[in-house]
From TrEMBL:
This is Serine/threonine protein kinase. InterPro entries: HATPase_C_sf, HATPase_dom, PPM-type-like_dom_sf, PPM-type_phosphatase-like_dom, Ptase_RsbX. The keyword Transmembrane does not apply. Residues 214-224 have a biased composition (Low complexity). It comes from the Bacteria. Keywords: Kinase, Serine/threonine-protein kinase, Transferase. GO terms for molecular function: protein serine/threonine kinase activity. The keyword Kinase applies. It holds the Pfam family SpoIIE.
Amino acid sequence: MTGPVVVDCEDVAWFRDAAEMPSAARGAAATLARRIGLDGYRSSEVALAVSEAATNLQRHARDGALLLRVLRTPDRAGVEFVTVDTGPGIADVEAALSDGVSSAGTLGIGLGAVARLADAFDIHSLPGKGTVMAAQFWAREAGDGPTGGTTSVASGLTRPISGETSCGDAWAVRIDEGGPETSRSSSSDAGRGGAYGTRSPGLLGSGPATPGTRSSAGSGRSSASSEPAVLVVLCDGLGHGPLAALAAEAAVTAFRRSAARHPEPLLRDIHGALRGTRGGAVAVARIEPARGRVLYCGIGNVSGVLLGPDSRNGLLSAPGIVGSQMRSLRTFELPWKPGGALIMHSDGLTERWNADAMPGLLRHTPAVMAGQLLREAGVRRDDAGVVVVKGDW
């Protein structure tokens, strides 16, 4: 069994203006592909695929938007685009991906060709509601077929409030490779225990937490964790605009730099890093596949949900502002079930989304899942951020 793999995402731009989207997105995609080192031929393929996707949104979709971003692993970089629209949806996705079918109904290359040009491709369409599509492009020789891309266990999306270009929501994921707990503990761990609690399954925010016992997994002092784990953070900087984005960026930077390995000490490190900023709502989770559990600790209006094929369990956050007013922390534990996903999102997405309204959601990649949640639950009067962790590793 291989360990979890994470691909870092660097959002570049959302394209929303239908009139200018195809030309603007195509030019930006070609420039971005060349900037990260893709050769001229591959860069032109990226531009062609992005142009087709953008033209499809322009001609057929309602409220269509295209996100262009960079993907990075330790040894290479790629380009990804994600499209989100609110309808009308595609009644027959397989037919739309067939050769000779143009998504624009004209001389376009068609979605099937976009899928072949991409190294990884996923699409989820809900007739009457909307479509989300994601495609990755990595370096490859002319004439070669798709490489399969790099499958990440986590992906997310952020979208600024209407009228802004800076987003005050940010997320990040990293892998804890395992090893003795004390070998990488941060100074903020020392001498601070963590009270764990468990909740009964239920709807988001429902049900009380039951008192837990002090655990070395929270204090970082004596337990050992030899198996890899996934750590994820989501920050919603207070307000919106550049100052909120500055707070969110500080939270992500602290998360990446911290030697802490569990939610509570990570939140303490982030709390210190956010002093002097606006502060924000922050949640941190640790997923331990080998132990079959998720540990979660949050402050403020960040929602956490463990979504399974037949279940939805909410994860509680305490009131407060990280960087300003952070009360005593409590980490909650729930079982990690195969086939499920951890979803964390800011209050730029309403909590009232229903997975049953998005049939087949769990069969798709984290990027497409995040796009569907943004489409289904996102609001335009606030920054929005959502991250999804999913994998049967």
